[in-house]
From TrEMBL:
<keyword id="KW-0472">Membrane</keyword>
<feature type="transmembrane region" description="Helical">
    <location>
        <begin position="103"/>
        <end position="121"/>
    </location>
</feature>
<feature type="domain" description="Major facilitator superfamily (MFS) profile">
    <location>
        <begin position="1"/>
        <end position="390"/>
    </location>
</feature>
<feature type="transmembrane region" description="Helical">
    <location>
        <begin position="342"/>
        <end position="360"/>
    </location>
</feature>
<feature type="transmembrane region" description="Helical">
    <location>
        <begin position="48"/>
        <end position="73"/>
    </location>
</feature>
<keyword id="KW-1133">Transmembrane helix</keyword>
<feature type="transmembrane region" description="Helical">
    <location>
        <begin position="141"/>
        <end position="158"/>
    </location>
</feature>
<feature type="transmembrane region" description="Helical">
    <location>
        <begin position="219"/>
        <end position="240"/>
    </location>
</feature>
<feature type="transmembrane region" description="Helical">
    <location>
        <begin position="80"/>
        <end position="97"/>
    </location>
</feature>
<feature type="transmembrane region" description="Helical">
    <location>
        <begin position="308"/>
        <end position="330"/>
    </location>
</feature>
<feature type="transmembrane region" description="Helical">
    <location>
        <begin position="178"/>
        <end position="198"/>
    </location>
</feature>
<feature type="transmembrane region" description="Helical">
    <location>
        <begin position="366"/>
        <end position="385"/>
    </location>
</feature>
<keyword id="KW-0812">Transmembrane</keyword>
<dbReference type="InterPro" id="IPR020846">
    <property type="entry name" value="MFS_dom"/>
</dbReference>
<dbReference type="InterPro" id="IPR011701">
    <property type="entry name" value="MFS"/>
</dbReference>
<feature type="transmembrane region" description="Helical">
    <location>
        <begin position="284"/>
        <end position="302"/>
    </location>
</feature>
<protein>
    <submittedName>
        <fullName>MFS transporter</fullName>
    </submittedName>
</protein>
């Protein structure tokens, strides 16, 4: 890089800083709130419906993803992202009030608002990727993920203060996490208001595509298959494993540590997986992601906390590889980003809803085996992926 180019690169990185920090705060908010929603639902006396909050979150995200995608195509990334973070703040507060008062419908309403927010602010990854040349978009996505794991780790370190805050408020740590998450998302919304996007979606026709039209674009079907599979399997096991850990006798701090290991797998190696996908291509991401997702599912039902921790880490890393590859591919199809993301949320919602029923009727091992079989689907995406490495 020339001396003249270095200041411009540094300036670009500085301008992206609010986006990266906001995403870190959002991941921290998720870590202390929606990830543990199954435990709150169980505490409200509906253990058989432990997966329902996550299902509603994913259904709301599926509905909102296309709408936020269309808004960002027409108005730009900043208005869409700031609205999404603000909506998440409201959802967190509603969820906290509902859970603390023991009013299940109100808690579920908060979960739905949180899901609608996620359908918008998860598209921050496209804003980061759009800011760099295509050959370095995997690295840009990896950097965003690295900031996310920092946010999760910071919040995990606050597990005991959250417990103390909950005791002061007369609420459990899981319920208190929703209040803390709302504060984090509020700060993220303010940060995005100060962010100046480096570029916008490079499309000639800025309109939302219906699902059928999006799928007629060459390359979208195989990309959507990988993204939906990775998102569906990851959210299903991530949402229902804390309940299994609770049944194994793990306390709040231990469950938080388990989730942190999962978040480490999801985001902590973005600095490595992103550049590897840039160098080795989409097929590497799909194949390696599928293998790790299957390994995570097969180790989840094994006896012992160590196996459970290993499963959660592998689940996160497998998702990372398949999801980063799919997200990089989607930067070529801006008009299809929203509807493709929506499919991932639909898969996650169905997975958590059906997963809870499977656990209730056949046990956790049956769910794990089913997830292991479905983990082979990104191999189809690898077969259909373009051979180009850019």
């Amino acid at each position: 890089m020339s001396d003249a180019a270095r200041p411009a690169a540094l300036s670009g990185a500085a301008r992206l800083a609010p986006l990266y920090v906001a995403q870190a705060l959002a991941t921290g908010a998720t870590t202390v709130s929606t990830v543990l929603a199954s435990l709150i639902m169980s505490g409200l006396g509906s253990e058989a419906l432990a997966g329902l909050p996550s299902t509603l979150i994913q259904a709301s995200a599926a509905t909102s993803a296309g709408l936020f995608g269309a808004l960002m195509l027409r108005r730009g990334r900043r208005p869409g992202l700031s609205l999404a973070f603000a909506l998440g703040t409201v959802g967190s507060l509603v969820g906290f009030l509902g859970a603390r008062a023991g009013v299940t419908p109100l808690f579920l309403a908060g979960a739905m608002l949180m899901g609608a927010a996620q359908g918008g602010y998860q598209q921050a990854r496209y804003a980061a990727a759009e800011s760099v040349p295509e050959a370095r978009r995997g690295a840009a996505l990896g950097a965003l993920m690295l900031m996310s794991v920092l946010g999760s780790f910071v919040m995990t370190g606050f597990a005991h203060p959250i417990e103390r805050l909950g005791a002061t408020l007369g609420a459990t740590p899981e319920v208190t996490g929703w209040l803390v998450g709302g504060a984090l998302l509020g700060v993220a919304a303010l940060l995005i208001l100060s962010w100046q996007p480096l570029s916008g979606p490079a499309v000639a026709k800025r309109e939302r595509l219906p699902l059928a039209a999006a799928f007629r674009i060459p390359g979208v079907k195989s990309t959507a298959l990988a993204v939906a599979t990775a998102q569906g399997l990851m959210v299903t096991l991530m949402s229902l494993t804390p309940l299994r850990a609770h049944h194994m006798g793990m306390d709040h701090a231990q469950v938080a540590a388990l989730i942190s290991g999962h978040i480490l797998g999801m985001f902590g190696f973005g600095w490595l997986t992103g550049p590897l996908i840039d160098r080795l291509g989409l097929r590497f991401g799909y194949v390696s992601g599928a293998l790790l997702l299957a390994a995570a599912a097969l180790t989840a039902p094994l006896t012992g906390q160590a196996w459970l921790a290993a499963s959660m880490f592998l689940l996160g890393l497998g998702w990372n590889l398949a999801f980063v590859a799919g997200s990089k591919a989607l930067t070529r199809f801006p008009a299809a980003q929203g509807v493709t993301d929506a499919l991932g949320y639909v898969a996650a919602g169905l997975g958590t809803l059906l997963g809870g029923a499977v656990i209730a009727r056949a046990g956790f091992p049956a769910l794990a085996i089913t997830c292991a079989v479905l983990a082979a689907l990104p191999l189809v995406s690898a077969w259909r992926a373009r051979p180009a490495r850019s």
